[in-house]
Amino acid sequence: MNKEEFGKYLSRMYQDGMLMLSVGLGHDLGLFKVICEALKPISVEEVAKTLNLKERYTQEWLSTMVAAGIILQDRDSNLYTVPEDYKQTIMSKMAFAPILFTLGKRSDKVKECFKKDGPYGISFRDEEAADCFDWFDGYRSLVCEGAIDKEIIPLLTQQGVVHKLESGIKVLDVGCGSGNFINLLAERFPKSSFTGLDYSEFGIEKANKVRVEKELSNISFTTGDAHNLPDEWTESFDFVFVYDVLHDLSDPHKALDQIYKVLKKDGCLSLKDFGFHSNPVDNAGNKCAAMHYTVSCFICLQSSLSAPPHIGYGTCWGRENLEKALIDAQFNIKEKLSTTVSGSKACYLCTK
Ligand SMILES: C[S@@+](CC[C@H](N)C(=O)[O-])C[C@H]1O[C@@H](n2cnc3c(N)ncnc32)[C@H](O)[C@@H]1O
Q1: Disulfide engineering: 65 pairs with which of 19, 71, 106, 237, CB 3.0-4.6 Å?
Q2: pTM of the predicted model, to two decimals?
Q3: Terminal CA-to-CA distance of the chain, rounded, Å?
């Protein structure tokens, strides 16, 4: 990239970054939903009235989306529409954007954590994390079903785990968060019994709420620490899954040893984490990795550094380190799957 191209590259970055704030507003205020669900082109008055919003702000937001090429405006009628085949993509992709508000709210504390004499980090149990769970739950509720079908079930099928889940086995979800995966899996496999563990009350509370709403009798949730799983659980689970958690832990190696402990001898571990490269130089030019390093500074690295021994691997500790950690913990990696073009996701199925 020459100097001029580099300048344009940075300008585009500002434009896209700023625009995502409007996307976040559109998601949170329900604007995208109204436009995507409209059966015919819709006016600013109709959009504003449906959501009980002020017309002027609604107009400004619509103009933003038209300028960005996300929503179409008819010059003669001034009506707004979205191409039919974009609707689903808009609804699922836009759900990530409100993370910007969550990150913004904790930015002062994050800056303090950077300082030599500042706090170690922000844990998922701290007050600041409540907001994170609100965003995460909303996002997860839109993407988990797809992740189960595209990333998780294909690996489980290959090792016969799906068949076992259908027959009825004991399952543990370590770091279940707001329970989005476990609640869906428990619904799909009613003969199996599921335990969800997370050390944050914020997550467990949301998870339990959905469990009650869906009347799922095959799940129980508990607060606990992945680094210290109860001794009475030793060799008692047939299947353990850990999705997007390991990099958040203050000591992933200790947690893997604990997971090894609670798995039955013929049990399986399903692990999903981020699949970037462990050496940052190998992620050079990967914008998706850059975005996840950002999330790391605000959320994941914060969590991982918040408690002793403050290992602090962060979101992008990478597939090479992750695979080494699994092998060091004596797991046998039976299957692996890397998804998305940028290699952002890595899924593993391991045996003891
Ligand atoms: C990114 S969320 C993932 C949640 C869930 N697995 C999912 O994929 O939707 C990470 C979760 O790890 C939990 N966590 C962090 N440290 C933990 C620990 N030491 N023990 C148990 N859970 C922990 C957090 O509270 C948070 O719910």
Answers
A1: 71
A2: 0.93
A3: 48
Give the closest residue to 231 by CA, choosing from 257, 251, 211: 257
Asked whether 172 lines ligand 1 (CB < 6 A), one says no
Closest listed residue to residue 105, CA positions, set 316, 307, 314, 299: 299
C-beta separation of 101 from 109 below 8 A: no
- The preferred substitution site among 96, 99, 103, 124 for testing ligand 1, maximizing ligand atoms within 8 Å of CB, is 124
Domain borders along the chain are: 3-92, 103-351
Pocket flag, ligand 1, residue 251 (CB < 6 Å): no
Task: Indicate the CATH number for domain 3-92.
Answer: 1.10.10.10
Residue whose structure tokens are 């000591």: 251
Burial 29-56 (b: 16+ CB within 10 A, else e): bebbbbbbebeebbebebbbebeebeee
CATH number for the domain running over 103-351: 3.40.50.150
The whole-angstrom separation of Cα 198 and Cα 173 is 8
Burial of 291 (0-12, 13-18, 19+ CB in 10 A): middle
Contact 243 CB / ligand 1 (< 6 Å): yes
| Chain segment 268-323, per-residue pLDDT in tens | 999 999 999 999 999 999 999 999 999 999 999 999 999 999 999 999 999 999 99
Paired tokens of 336: 């692996």
